[in-house]
Amino acid sequence: MNQMIIKKCVGKDVFERMNYLLQLSNLALRQPGKDAASSLYSHLLVNVSQKAVQRMEPEVKRSICKRCHTLMIPGINSQIRIRKKRLRWKCNKCSNSKLFKTDPSHKLWIDNKEAIVETLRY
Amino acid sequence: MTLTSSDFSATSKDSGKVYLFNLLKENLPRRTQSELNTLTDSTFVFTTNARKKGKVVRTKKQFLTRKERKKLNILKLPKQDWKYDELCEMRELWKQYMRNNLNLYPKIPTWEDPNWTNFNITLAKSEFIGAELTVIRSKNVNQVGMRGTVVLETKATFQIVTPKNELKILVKKPSVFTFTLDDMKFTIFGKYAIIRPSERSIKKIKTLLLPDL
Amino acid sequence: MLSPEIWNFKAPDSLVKVEKGNIVNNNCFNTIQKLHHNHLVSVVLPDTLRVPQNICETLKNDCEYYKISNVGLDELVNINFINAFVRKGIFISLSINERIDCDDCMCITPNGFLLLSLTKETYESLGLEGTPSHYYNTKQRYVVSINLLSNHFKPGKKNYDRTKDRLLTLKKMTLLINWEPPHLDICPSSVAKYFDDLKFDVQVCLPDFQMRTNYTIKVPNFTMDNIHEFVEWLGMFSLESDLGGGGESYLSTYETPQPYQEYGQVKFLQWRGFFSSQQINKLLEVLISHLKDEEKPWISLYVQGFSDVVVGWDLQEHHYYTNGDNGYVIVLNSEDYMVYQHMCSKKSYK
User: Fold this and answer.
1) pTM above 0.90, yes or no
2) What's a single GO CC term here (chain B) (predicted)?
């Protein structure tokens, strides 16, 4: 019999909720005509993270448009272009653009090995 | 501290020195990086790589107002074109999420357990989109007996899709809802859940509540 | 601090309704039609040596009622049941062992309405539309009425389906059923057979009949003037109380009002059961013919309804506090009749 001691993680339930909402938002986009639902779920995701002050991984955060909080999937509801050595994500809903640099040696802090203190698996 | 060339080799056992080496490599200007191996001087200037602060330009606030969101049609859910069967996947996903969230094994908590309050708090903080709610008691007599999958939660309502593919809006305040998970039945008194879903994760709910409408 | 006055309460208002008239007009039957669920019937026959058989038999034959236990109310909404029994003939029904002020009660009236009197929690769980009860200012009790004879009440219609679904959630009750078939060929026990086929526990109940003779009784004369004292005497006689009077001055005793006559034998008949207003009608007709044939001075009839029924007089809501107005007295002599009713106030108490 597995005797798993559930380690204490501060804000675990909030993380679970945010994760679930992201999956829901993805699921809703796959069905036709439900983009309002999808954007509502990702909007709720952003709100929850703001209220509970839990930060998201940059990958997740960058896939949500900063203005209208819809989940951006390239090809379906967003455009990605590279112009003038810059990567540009454009949201189809609110025509909001987000620019990124294309420097190959630029590393995110979270990608450092030193950034990870503890990994909890559930 | 002087760093000799032998210290810069990768097989150095001193991990502190390796860390320092990596740090220097990232933060120094490019020209100095290539000469790192041959350097003997240990004073480094870090500021040349820093960008000069330009004029602080106030960027326009990017958030959308309610009117603009209404224009984009992302404020409300559509009333037609709902298929109850397609939401089956959502329901399965919700069940998995709840099982992870509530720590239902090794034992289902009862009111005698010490972590009963924690169990209730976790339940109150959890997400209800994707659950299958049934109204068992309501002051709105016509809403009693409605059953469906939750697609949206707002401050005062639950919006559900019934098996007949209709979108119904259930008011929270005068109703009592139930849902089942595996072999447990949960009852939610809507009177105490009139909070925005984003705030429900952090707000504390009173411990002394009357189970009446 | 002054203590509050807890002894100086006025009695609740009540009203005595007396109706007088001539038998020829047949108006005496009007009051009978208004009370649908009758429990107790008693008849006082003065100066009678032998009670004719037909009076005793009227409320005995064809007056069976059935007690069915553990019936879910969705059975009463079944379209076959409605077509066979409610539409044809006269069907009345009551729930028993349920208190009108604490529990949920139901009744079916002869004009085809299924009425439920529910507590707040049951009403909110049930989900059918109803109105708050008149007798409570805080909404504690609700009355739901379902028209069984409506044209729209058919399977396939939304209203019917929803009513049937929701009635399944109500608890099961024990019912009393009385059905008068439209023709004499159809036996009233067909309703019992219907429920028996559905595997319910059906019990046949016959009305309980008692007869009592009192000898040498002082009986006051029945005139249209001293009605109250006459009715009081009737009540005292029916309850077998001491009509002697006089004697000690310390205790209060009852004295028969003057002018009075002494009769050798006075008969008292009592039936207890579940009677419809039609059956009481028949009894009154028999009594009138008996009065005319045998030339008796007067005959009296007292009818009392149930205490836990949802509707009382004239399909108005009945309540625990209006339990006193559930009956009426009819006194007849060869030409005139008098109907005596004691009505309670319909005030809602907070």
Assistant:
1) no
2) ribonuclease P complex
